[in-house]
Design goal:
Strand 3 and strand 4 (53-64) form a beta hairpin. This protein has helices at residues 2-17, 80-83; strands at 19-23, 31-37, 41-48, 53-64, 69-77, 87-91, 97-98, 108-117, 120-123, 130-137, 140-147, 153-164, 167-175, 185-193, 196-202, 208-215. The chain contains 2 helices and 16 strands. Strands 8-10-11-12-13-14-15-16 form an 8-stranded antiparallel β-barrel. A 7-stranded antiparallel β-sheet has the order 6-5-4-3-2-1-7. Helix content is 9%, strand content 56%. The model is unreliable at 1-15 (pLDDT under 50). It folds into 2 domains: 2-98, no CATH class; 108-215, Uncharacterised protein PF14869 family, DUF4488 (Lipocalin, Beta Barrel), CATH 2.40.128. By secondary structure, it is mainly beta.
């Protein structure tokens, strides 16, 4: 019985770490700070709603102290050329507003693993440092393209999403490459097959696509 109680508490603590927060600071009340975290990974993004403006995004694996201080070792930092930061500490406080959205079946970290072509699946090596990752939690999503060796940042976008009856819909709130994409709603068909997420529809450029994403385990 003690073992069962301990396991339950451990699982409860782990799941409580997987959260989404939004907050603003007194220094600049226009900038929205969004935090997406799971049991091991932390992403912070800063953006403005109106007029739409992407500020920065940064993230990586983290440790957390008893005083709610996150220490993050970055895998990416869109502001790296300006601040050279590869590690950062962020203190959680009362200004962080926790999302009340429920978890969805696509929640997790996903790596772009390939595409479906006329000749079948065309897979890519996800162990290489050049990665495109989607991080989904409680109805929020963000994709990031980066290189873990060179620290190059290639782009990011995100917002909120729904996933129901095989339809995955993205509502874009920020997009580093083109602020004009903010506000767009993009519906896709999706299905889960083993560790893969098949993602099919029309991309932001208006081109047909069928992507394969796989759960990130490294």
């Amino acid at each position: 019985m003690k073992k069962l109680i301990f396991c339950f508490l451990l699982l409860s603590c782990s799941s409580s770490l997987a959260q989404v927060f939004n907050f603003k600071t007194e220094r600049n009340a226009k900038i929205i700070h969004r935090i997406i975290i799971d049991e091991e990974y932390f992403v912070e993004t800063q953006f403005i709603n109106d007029p739409a403006e992407f500020i920065l995004t940064r993230g990586g694996f983290y440790t957390k102290s008893e005083r709610n201080k996150f220490k993050i070792k970055f895998e990416f930092n869109s502001n790296y050329e300006k601040d050279s930061l590869i590690e950062f500490e962020l203190q959680q406080d009362r200004s962080w507003i926790k999302s009340v959205n429920k978890s969805l079946d696509l929640d997790g970290k996903w790596l772009m693993a390939g595409r479906m072509t006329d000749n079948g699946e065309r897979r890519r090596d996800i162990s290489k440092p050049r990665k495109t990752m989607k991080f989904l939690k409680d109805g929020y999503f963000q994709w990031i393209a980066f290189n873990t060796e060179t620290f190059q940042f290639f782009g990011s976008g995100g917002g909120f999403y729904s996933a129901e009856d095989g339809i995955y819909t993205e509502n874009i709130e920020f997009f580093s490459r083109n602020n004009k994409s903010v506000g767009r709603v993009l519906p896709f068909q999706y299905s889960l097959k083993d560790n893969d997420w098949h993602h099919e529809g029309i991309n932001s450029k208006g081109d047909p696509m069928h992507e394969i994403w796989t759960n990130r385990n490294l």
